[in-house]
Amino acid sequence: MKLGDEAAGIRKGEELPIKKIEAYIRENIEGIDRPVTVQQFLGGHSNLTYLILAGNMEMVLRCPPHGTKAKTAHDMGREYKILSALQKDFPYCPKPILYSEDESILGSPFYLMERKRGIIIRRDLPDHLRLTASDTTRLFENILKVQYQLHAIDYKKIGLENFGKPDGYVNRQVEGWSRRYRAARTPDVPDGELVMDWLLENMPGDTEHPSLLHNDFKFDNVILDPENPFTVVGVLDWEMATIGDPLMDLGATLGYWVEAGDPEEMQALRTGPTNAPGALTRGEMVRQYAMLSGRKIDKFDFYYCFGVFRLATIVQQIYYRYFHGQTLDRRFKNFGFTVNVLVNTANRIIKGDLLWKQG
Fold first, then answer.
1. The pTM of the whole model exceeds 0.85
2. Rounded CA gap, 116 and 120, in Å?
3. What CATH superfamily is the domain 127-351?
4. pLDDT surpassing 90 at residue 224
């Protein structure tokens, strides 16, 4: 039974210069007396992730897609900085090991971090866990608590006061993701203008209590303890982390939510066990978060709608590359369908046909 992500062979076109990596590791880490080997984690759609075996050490290497020029979207130094800053206050982060801006090695900056092992849950709960409905409720509550723990950190005390710009954050997000969607649109997906106009007209003002945001807090970015699957031991993929309104982070999480009673087209997009007996509904997630944080939460339909639309834009940016032959990765073939469903879902939220309160 595979509990977490397993590395395998390297995809064609995503090979790494092993000799250069080995030389860099030997130069910077003492005691490496055996050859370095490289495998690839084949999940994920953005930054590339590899397993580096160096003697008795298991490390994970993160780097941008080969040939990437948009460094702001694949900022390895930024990821390394937040992992370093959070070590004391948020023990779920992998420990960073090395960071390099020397592009003569890989052609781009990259970093190495520890490999965290454990259970990673994807579309369904593993049968061997034998979770009852009450067990599942407890699991969801614990994962939500970890997300809140991140939001509760005093980011200024850990040196991240300049990590993001909380003033005007929501406005920049709405305008920025709208601009990205328009730029990546292909003829076979909706124009999304109704959704973008509604978000612009209904966005709230700045929060008085900004916090650290993970910005992609979902099941397959969480690692659970194999001995106690209710305990979170790791949180992965910090590439979109920033400072802003924590309800935007929760909205991004619920953008992935598909409940048992949701329409069939939404069921096809489910990537986590959010329809399982005992799983918290969207409404329960929001109410639990309100109790944990003490925040007054009004009009969460904006945050939920934005989370769905932002996910549609992320998927569309990937699909654009496939549509125009910039990648041959067959995983992206049906992403146009996904975008259609997500934009349709956002429209239903606006009309009140799909409420975050349901369930």
1. yes
2. 11
3. Aminoglycoside phosphotransferase (APH), C-terminal lobe (3.90.1200.10)
4. yes
